[in-house]
Amino acid sequence: MTRPSQPWAIASGRNAPLDMAIDANDVYWTENNTGGVYQVGKSGGSVVTIKAADNVVNSSWAVATDSTGGGTLVFWADRAHGRVGAAPVGGGATPWYFDSPNGSGAGTYGIAQDYDKTVDRVFASDFSTGGVWTFGANHSGGTGLVDYSATGPTGLFALGGNNVLVTLYASGSVQNDATMIATGKNDDARYVTSDGTTAFWTASDGNQVWAAPINGNGTTPVLVSGSESQPWGIATDGTSSIYWVNKTSGTVVHGSLSATAGRRR
Question: Which pTM does this prediction carry?
Answer without folding.
Answer: 0.81
